[in-house]
Amino acid sequence: MRTTDLSGQALAITDDTFAEDVLNQHVPVLVDFWAEWCPPCHMLAPTLDQIARERAGSLLIRKINNDENPVTGASYRVLSLPTLILFRDGEVVHTVVGARPKARLLAEIDDALRRPI
Fold first, then answer.
1. Minimal CB count within 10 Å: which of 2, 16, 49, 69?
2. In the 8-state DSSP scheme, what is residue 10?
3. Distance (Å, rounded) from C-alpha 4 to C-alpha 92?
4. 34-67 pLDDT per residue, tens
5. Domains of the chain
6. Rounded CA separation 96/82 (Å)
7. Which residues are annotated as active site (predicted)?
């Protein structure tokens, strides 16, 4: 699985692939830190899949299971799930903790991407 693909899929990543799949991308990347036991994570998943399709080519959506990949979550101080972290040019530009309705999440993403780094 290579995440340079801009096909509009929310793809799974790991601690081992995080740098390549997130930090080294030339488009913004929204990373979903989730866990199997987390009901709000499952509620948010279809919304993230929709956003991945709608923003194909301009935004990547990546999912990392925080229980199976604890190193990345710890390095970004992920304490609650779901946590969404938006990266641009390898830098964190916005963090969302908890599920959001699609319209509100898109508004936060768009606002964060309009701001200079």
1. 2
2. -
3. 19
4. 999 999 999 999 999 999 999 999 999 999 999 9
5. 11-114 (3.40.30.10)
6. 8
7. 38 (nucleophile), 41 (nucleophile)
